[in-house]
Design a protein that fits this description.
By secondary structure, this protein is an all-beta fold. It contains no helices and 13 strands. A five-stranded antiparallel β-sheet has the order 1-4-3-2-5, with no helix packed on it.
């Protein structure tokens, strides 16, 4: 009646990540994921979201997702710390702006829209937000010009001068 051994198939492993409740609808089953093991070589392992926990965390509303990752060569071990980046679904023809253009006014996202050489603070409704870009659902139209740096807090109608882009 005493446990002598545990047999483990480690050819594929799962990593568990916590998704904030407000972002859960943006992640779908089968979504791609890039996983980097903290203690391993600086390489990325490609996996996919295989399943979600059946219940959200009662205290935070977060949902656990389980990413299936191949363990080619058996180099990974259960319990290793990692970082994961999930790939969100494609949204064709989405209106996006750089994340740096967004400011927060009392919990409301705003951007500085430039019209006829003057600055105007404009409330926006955001959709998906990645590390560099944010989808704008309402508040801007395609072709609107926004300040990506230094626009927050300018008085309404303040004249602005657009600096040319430095050569790359």
């Amino acid at each position: 009646g005493e446990l002598l051994a545990t047999i483990v198939d480690d050819s594929t492993l799962f990593t568990q990540v916590r998704i904030p409740g407000g972002r859960f609808e943006q992640v779908s089953l089968g979504a791609g994921a890039d996983v980097r093991i903290e203690s391993g070589p600086n390489s990325t392992i490609h996996g996919r979201v295989e399943r979600f926990s059946p219940q959200a965390n009662l205290a935070t509303g977060d949902v656990d997702a389980f990413i299936l990752i191949p363990n080619q060569g058996g180099a990974l071990r259960p319990g290793l710390a990692c970082r994961a980046r999930l790939w969100l679904r494609d949204i064709p023809n989405a209106l996006t702006i750089p994340v740096g253009a967004i400011a927060d006014r009392d919990g409301v996202p705003v951007v500085t829209r430039i019209t006829e050489g003057k600055a105007y603070e404009t409330e926006v409704v955001l959709g998906l937000v990645t590390e560099n870009q944010a989808q704008v659902l309402r508040g801007l139209d395609a072709g609107d010009l926004v300040a990506t740096d230094g626009g927050y807090g300018l008085p309404e109608g303040c004249p602005v001068k657009i600096a040319p882009q430095p050569p790359q």
